[in-house]
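Long-time lurker. I teach an intro course on protein structure, and each term I like to show students one example going from raw sequence to a predicted 3D structure in token notation. This year I'd like something fresh instead of my usual example. Would anyone be willing to generate the tokens for the chain below so I can use it in lecture? Attribution to the forum is fine with me.
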Amino acid sequence: MPVPVGRYAVVILAGIAALLVVTLLVRPFIFSFSSARDDANYPLVAASEIDNGPQSIEIVLSDSHDLLGEQAADGRVGLTVIAAPLPGRDGYSVVTAWSPANDCPVTLGADRLVDCAGTTWTYAGFPIDPADPPLQTFANDMRQGAIVVDFTAPTTPSS
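-- Reply from a regular --
Happy to contribute to a lecture. Here you go:
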């Protein structure tokens, strides 16, 4: 007895249509409960990764915010930041990896941040030499094990 190919094709197409309908209905429902993902609410990195030591992290922002070290290319805005645990496990610092003193990248040193001219800062963005400017810092908090950062309003570190 021949197998009715048309019947199987209809069942398969109905299954695909049902899956598509469920996907289109469920996906917006899921995202309606999640927090917004924009530059004011940017999940940067898992806190457990930063607990092992400071890290330099390259990110892509949704919009330009006139931050030090922003690099625009192909309609995207790139930025490098440094995230580090604060002493005493009192949270985390997130600073821009761009020197306000010498207009060049800031890199991770053994126990501090260093720019191309040797100017240094603490991981929290405070200058080692009080005559130098502080790094731009960003408000952040920990949510569900991730460091979430507001890149829309940079600040300077306060003592």
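Some talking points for your students: The beta strands are 42-46, 55-61, 71-73, 76-85, 92-96, 106-108, 113-115, 120-121, 140-143, 146-149. The longest helix spans residues 5-33.
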